[in-house]
Amino acid sequence: MGRGAPISDEERGRMKGLYEAEMGVRNIARRLERSPNGVSYVLRAPEKTKKKRGRPRSLTDSQVRQVVRAAATENYSAAELKATYGLSCSVGTVQRLLSRVDYLVYSKMDRTLHLTKEHMLARLEFAQRLSTAAQKEVVWPMIIFSDEKNGYKHFGDTCVARIAATRRAKMREGRSFGSKGKSELVVLEGRQNSGHYIYNVSEHCSRLLTSTSDNASIHSSNETRMFFHEIGVQLLDWPARSPNLNPIENYNSVPELTAAVMKAWNSAKMNELQDLLDTMPARCFEVARKNNDKTHY
């Protein structure tokens, strides 16, 4: 037996009217020449689809596909995806969306400085220039690497009103080293300026040949450059946003109170510092190998 014609809206209305008049399903089916199952289905079916309860979705299907495709093909963070595609949802919503995709693997992004094209070109020029000089084996023994570091010690107090107040003690220290030895560790009091920097160099780093400068304002000011020029010390033109090219950045032990930092620096052996100094050629070559981008140092 073949299927009958689709039930029209007029027939649906008649079925419901007869049913409200207390006519049975079989009688309605005989009267309208329809099957009892068809009549029963019409009477049980809701008049219209109910609305879904709860908050509406913050992302459309198109936006979901767009975000997942971008995350799979490019190196984006959740915040960058939200900003790039102008999403109205929160960063947490994007993170939860990506976590539900089986073939996407989360990896924590490096906390490094953003490099523009100009930064990359400057890094490459610096690496090529020093790599060429290093082949003559005269450049690295003549360079003093220096840096200042902030050390913090966090501690908290619990007040009567159950309000946690977090405080931190701050200490700033400076140090330098080269192939011939290392300086003493100097505790820097208060906010530093060019005058303080010049004084510390004069007192604690008197045997300089060539010095590094990380482009901090107190290192690159006219006053500082004039001082180095007067004492006959050549400053390396250091590329911006490139702390990973300075080997002293890799020796940051025990950033706590003054005594602990002093002990850590004084315990540094020259063979350890020499090993860091020996990484300079590799640092320069890796800049070119990674197309001027960040290195692993």
TrEMBL record:
Classify the source by domain of life.
Eukaryota
The Gene Ontology terms for molecular function here are: nucleic acid binding
Residue ranges of every copy of the Transposase IS30-like HTH domain listed in the record: 7-44
Protein name, entry field: Transposase
- UniProt organism field: Phytophthora megakarya
